[in-house]
Amino acid sequence: MNALVATNRNFKLAARLLGLDSKLENSLLIPFREIKVECTIPKDDGTLASFVGFRIQHDNARGPMKGGIRYHPEVDPDEVNALAQLMTWKTAVANIPYGGAKGGIGCDPGELSISELERLTRVFTQKIHDLIGVHTDVPAPDMGTNPQTMAWILDEYSKFHGYSPAVVTGKPTDLGGSLGRDAATGRGVLFATEALLHEHGKSIAGQGFVVQGFGNVGSWAAQLISENGGKIVAVSDITGAIKNSKGLDIPSLLKHTKENRGVRGFSGGDPIDPNSILTEDCDVLIPAALGGVINRE
Fold it and tell me: pLDDT value at position 292?
C-alpha cells in the first residue's frame, strides 16, 4: 500500500474514533504547502547532475512546522507527504508547540562525494530558504543526512537571513546543537524494546537481534543494545547485509562502516542476501530503514 494512502487511512480511522467534524477531517488531510524544486549541481568530474527535492509543510496550527530531510533514491512526493502528516500528529501527541513537515531529495548519498553532497544541500537550501525559518519551518536530519548536512543548511540559510542557528535542529554541538541528539532516536528504540520485553518477563541481555538499516537510528540502536547485553546477529544497509550467529562485534562494525560507508565487506560476519534480513532467525527484529517493509507478503 502506498505510504500516503496508508497514512490517510489510519488518520480517517482515528478521526472517526474521535468523532471529528468531517470538515476538520478533510482540512487536516490537505497539506499547508507542497514544494518541489529542481537541484542541478556540478559533479567532481565536471558533469552536471540533476535531482528533485521536496518539502511538504503539512500543518502549522500549533506552531512552526518541524520535520527531517532525508536523502534516499526512493524519496517521492507521496512518501514525504505521509511523513509530514505523521510529524503533525507526533508533535501534537508529544504536546510540543510545533506542526509537521518533511523533506527529501531523491538521490543516493552513497554515490556522491562529500563535496557533491555539500553542493546539493546548498542548492536545495537556496531553493527553499524563503519558505523555512525559525518561526516557519525547522528542518532536522533524517535518513541519509546528519549534523554536517544541517550545518550546510544553516550556513547557506544564514547567507540570506543572517546568522540563524535555530533554523535547524540536529546540527553539530559546536553550532549550538543538543548533546545526545545523534543517539536520541536509537535510544528511543532501546527504551521501547526494553518496555516490550519487560511485558514478557524478559530483558535485552541474552536476546538475539536483527537490525534492518544501519544508518543513524539502526547503528545507535545496535550499539546501545549491544552495550546492554543484547547479541546483534545480523544487520543490513543500502550496501549489503552481514550475519554472525555468535554476535557481530558492533564497535568494529561501526569503525568499518565509517571508513567504508557501509556494512559491505565487514570481515567479522558472513555476507547474506539483503532481501532475507527480515526472515533471519532472531528474538527481536528491528526494522530501522524505510517504512512499509513489513506487509502481508
Answer: 77
Inter-residue contact 11 to 93 (CB < 8 Å): no
Question: Are the beta carbons of 176 and 104 closer than 8 angstroms?
Answer: no
State residue 105's pLDDT score: 98
Give the confidence band of 277 by pLDDT, cuts at 50, 70, 90: very high
Type of residue at 232: I
Instruction: Please confirm, yes or no, whether 102 is among the known catalytic residues.
Output: yes
The full set of domains in the chain, from first to last, is 1-30 (no CATH), 31-179 (3.40.50.10860), 183-287 (3.40.50.720)
What pLDDT score was predicted for residue 185? 93
- DSSP readout, 18-78? HT--HHHHHHHHS-SEEEEEEEEEE-TTS-EEEEEEEEEEEE-TTSSEEEEEEEETT--HH
User: Grid coordinates standing for 126?
Assistant: 537556496
Q: Which pLDDT does position 293 carry in this prediction?
A: 83
Q: Pick the catalytic residue: 12, 66, 102, 202?
A: 102
pTM, rounded to two decimals: 0.88
